[in-house]
Amino acid sequence: MGQDLPSRTEVIVIGGGVIGCSISYHLARLGITDTLLLERRQLTCGTTWHAAGLIGQLRATRVMTELAKYTSDLLFELERETGQATGFRQNGSISLALNGERFEELKRGASMAKNFGLAAELLTVEDVRAKYPQLNLDGAVGGVFLPKDGQADPVGVTQAFARGARQRGARIVENCPVDTILVEGGRAVGVRLVDGQEIRAGTVVIAAGMWSHELGRRIGVSLPLHAAEHFYIVTEQIAGLPSNLPVLRVPDECAYYKEDAGKILLGCFEPVAKPWGMAGIPEDFCFDQLPEDIDHFQPILEAAMARMPALETAGIHTFFNGPESFTPDDRYLLGETPEVADLFVACGFNSIGIQSSGGAGKVLAEWIQGRAMPADLIDVDVRRMQPFQSGRRYLKERTTETLGLLYAMHWPYRQMETARGARRSPCHDRLAARGAVFGEVAGWERPNWFAPEGTERRYHYSWGRQNWHEPVGEECRAVRDAVGLFDQSSFAKFLVEGADAVKVLNRICCNDIDVPVGRVVYTQWLNERGGIESDLTVTRTGETSFMLVTAAAAQARDFAWLRRHLPQDARCHAVDVTSGLPMFGLMGPSSRTLLERLSGEELGNAAFPFGTSRELELGFARVRASRLTYVGELGYELYVPAEFATHLFDTLLAEGEGLGLRLAGYHAMNALRTEKGYRHWGHDIGVDDTPLEAGLGFCVAWDKPGGFIGRAALARLREQGRPRRRLVQLNLTDPGRLLHHEEPIWSGDRIVGAVTSGMYGHRVGASLGMGYVTGDVPADSGWLASHPLEVEIACKRVPVQAQLGAWYDPENTRIRG
Ligand SMILES: Cc1cc2nc3c(=O)[nH]c(=O)nc-3n(C[C@H](O)[C@H](O)[C@H](O)COP(=O)(O)OP(=O)(O)OC[C@H]3O[C@@H](n4cnc5c(N)ncnc54)[C@H](O)[C@@H]3O)c2cc1C
Questions:
Q1: Any atom of ligand 1 within 6 Å of the Cβ of 260
Q2: 523 neighbors 679 (Cβ within 8 angstroms)
């Protein structure tokens, strides 16, 4: 310390690992050079210096792939620009499958790669042998080769970012630890250094690796990440090892291999990891290693010696154990925090920080400059996390699982096994007693399906129909023919009340919410680009009061959006009432009869029309009932104060028995909504999709007084005529195959789109999905009818029908009751 530091700067970046340096570099590229990067010790001294340096490109999601791809595209350019070597070489990578299901996963990945513009080659066992003759291929069934993957020197990459940033005018200061972030009026305004000096700034960025959790905690910002021990060994020199060997991944043996100056670096993603740093990250940590744990590594090493016999005799030069940060869902944390404005984060990189560094630095710099998410970064947006997830016990438990999941089978519908049971509906035990098999969303335990008496209450994962296929079919048929009861307590609910509530909400919502009391409005919230930030219902409960209902996973994000868009002087306030207001969905043709019997009221279409909401007396409870549906049948959402919920549940079950009532879960709901073409935010619609492209133009109140956020961008799109992309409904001609996500959609020899979600529809008896058709094709009904399409599943093309409307009851006669 004792350095001559400014008292004010435009942006302060905390942390001089690969991420902080990339952010400084990319800010400078945007012309933001009045920046100060503060590193407590030396650049790279945290996690970065000891990374294995694998630079892969294909990730689980489109956006993470794009960011990794940008990094590799950048590395050569960075080296040329700065003169600092990055050690980047593109020898490609091989992923090897040791069983058919893993090969299916790799093939699905290869198909997905095509969507993202990545080259991917399927390999037979003989092809693998030709590329990597050092391997024993016993038990192998095939592989995938990604020619553009490679490896780099993490320290070189970081120094290149730092040099590039400095060359463009940014300032980087080492040995300068930040004590805390200064917050005034809910905004970050600077930092206080450990020596007490304060530096003011318009923006503060936390890029402090595993220290980020604590920096956030001190100012009430939740950054759910936890360090875990992460291992590799480096062998002695192995004679004859070519320097152009591709990186090798053998996920079924939890191992990766990298040629490194004539040696092999063997790293692992073991199934049960070792969380580290429970009492905090040591203040003096600097280029440190953690103690060896040979016993922990032994099973990986044994399998590796069998896989690559040269390892048996090579001798181990280095046994390395270093900490890396993991998040509860293995995706990093990026963006402006919901708790404190002008505070941005980039941390929790789950062992892909080097390969993601370029892309993450670029989009965060753009986000800082534009004060808006520059692309669809929902997958990595820090606002997806719930505050409880930064709890230490939760993180420690979850981290034992997340590290290993990176190489585990990525089964569709795979559920987390650790840190379960955090958030439960009041009826949780009742649901469990009736066979519920739970899944987890945002910490909520939610019944995904109900296992029939005498069957196992657990998932049997596969790429085809899983063991819940038939039970879910029964649930769907009950919803179609009688009535289904869904516990939807996890849905987030907010109240907005006050004299200005109408005005403020009408600016945020693209639909018109200035409706008579008792009406429910389906609407989206848009960003300035016209993209969909949220998909929700707004119920006018009084002249100046509204209830907003959104998805469980969007609770923190949507509430933050709402609060940010309430002007400071507005005469209204917003409160999150999720915990106090469980909700049941009662869906199906007998739902009305059931409610009439319980309430003693006549609830026909005239008394209780679709899209309205009113109070009903059900059992002992006064319940807010809204006549809505996400499943395409006559149905009601019942909002009940928490203390009445179990009694109401029992009452509904008892009265419903004679009407064929059946409990139904989220898999059934997903199947039913897919048949109806109802969009799911985060899958079918998101921040880069406009209502016009998503077929939600009917929710846009173009002419309401005062307009709405995003109207100008949307109006420009409307003027251009047909949208550049259209969401279409897909129906596989082979009902035995299933769509999940990101399968390419082909028209002849061109990829014209990709699948956004898929599910088997039991009411129509077909394997369905949705996806965008993009580019220069019109994708209107005429074009779709005259152009046969195919969907690529695991490198095989399957014919698919496509249309704009729903497959089930497109005229909505069932909803009208
Ligand atoms: C064994 C191992 C192998 C890996 N292999 C790969 C790989 O092959 N490919 C890949 O992409 N990734 C890999 N990774 C992951 C990668 O190393 C990390 O994701 C990446 O280095 C994270 O960078 P960072 O900048 O977020 O964190 P760090 O490198 O930890 O940087 C954070 C910096 O912030 C500083 N700091 C903290 N608190 C303060 C404060 N209060 N004031 C000022 N400065 C502060 C720290 O000193 C530190 O230098 C591996 C990790 C491990 C452990």
A1: no
A2: no
Confidence of residue 283 (pLDDT cuts 50, 70, 90): confident
| Residue nearest ligand 1's atom 51 by CA | 51
**With a 6 A CB cut-off, is 39 part of the ligand 1 pocket?**
yes
Query: Is the CB–ligand 1 distance for residue 557 below 6 Å?
Result: no
Element of type H or E holding 142: strand 142-146
Does ligand 1 come within 6 angstroms of the Cβ of 213? no
Please tell me the distance from the alpha carbon of residue 12 to that of residue 715, in angstroms, as a whole number: 37
Orientation of helix 154-167 relative to helix 353-370, angle to 10°: 30
Kindly state if the Cβ of 352 falls inside 6 Å of ligand 1: yes
User: Tens digits of per-residue pLDDT, 715-753?
Assistant: 999 998 878 899 999 999 898 999 999 999 999 999 999
- Express each pLDDT in 470-488 by its tens digit: 999 999 999 999 999 999 9
Helical axes 591-599 vs 645-656, angle rounded to 10° = 120
Q: Predicted confidence band at 1 (pLDDT cuts at 50, 70, 90)? A: low
Q: How far is CA 459 from the centre of its chain?
A: 22
Q: Which atom of ligand 1 is nearest to the CA of 43?
A: 49
C-alpha–C-alpha distance, residues 159 and 157, integer Å = 6
Q: Tell me which of 12, 14, 48 to substitute to probe ligand 1's pocket, judged by most ligand atoms within 8 Å of the beta carbon.
A: 48
Ligand 1 center to 386 CA (angstroms):
24
Residue 774's pLDDT is what? Answer: 86
Tokens of 27: 């800010």
Ligand 1 centroid distance, CA of 174 (Å):
15
Cα dist from 264 to 51, 55, 241, 361, 587, whole Å: 14, 16, 9, 30, 59
Q: What is the pLDDT of residues 173-216, one digit of tens each?
A: 999 999 999 999 999 999 999 999 999 999 999 999 999 999 99
- CA separation for the pair 332, 19 (Å, rounded): 12
The CA distances from residue 331 to 42, 59, 119, 161, 317, in Å, are 26, 10, 24, 23, 32
Strand partners, 97: 142
Using the predicted structure, report yes or no on whether residue 781 has a pLDDT greater than 90.
no
Cα dihedral sign for 480, 486, 491, 497?
A: positive
How many Cβ atoms sit within 10 Å of the Cβ of residue 643?
11
449: exposed, middle or buried (C-beta count within 10 Å: 0-12, 13-18, 19+)?
Answer: buried
Q: Is the CB of 351 under 6 A from ligand 1?
A: yes
User: Which ligand 1 atom sits closest to the C-alpha of 232?
Assistant: 1
CA–CA distances in Å: residue 248 to residues 51, 95, 256, 303, 626: 16, 6, 6, 14, 55
Residue nearest atom 37 in ligand 1 by C-alpha distance: 208
Q: Is 412 in the pocket of ligand 1 (CB under 6 A)?
A: no
Could you tell me the distance, in angstroms and rounded to a whole number, from the CA of residue 788 to the centre of ligand 1? 49
pTM for this predicted structure:
0.96
Q: For CA atoms 641, 647, 653, 655, give the dihedral sign.
A: negative
Q: Is 178 in the pocket of ligand 1 (CB under 6 A)?
A: yes
Q: Report the atom number in ligand 1 closest to the C-alpha of 325.
A: 19
- Kindly state the helix (H) or strand (E) to which residue 786 belongs, with its residue range: helix 781-786
Instruction: Specify the ligand 1 atom closest to the Cα of 209.
Output: 27
Q: Tell me the C-alpha distance between 475 and 485, whole Å.
A: 9
Tell me, using a 6 A CB cutoff, whether residue 48 lines ligand 1: yes
Determine what percent of the chain falls in helix, strand and coil, rounding each to the nearest 5: 30, 30, 40
Cα distance between residue 740 and residue 345, in whole Å: 31
Could you count the other beta carbons within 10 Å of the beta carbon of residue 607?
Answer: 11
Q: Kindly state if the Cβ of 174 falls inside 6 Å of ligand 1.
A: no
Report yes or no: 236 and 317 within 8 Å, Cβ to Cβ: yes
Residue whose CA lies nearest to ligand 1 atom number 18: 353
DSSP state letter for 495: E
Nearest residue (by CA) to ligand 1, atom 41, is 178
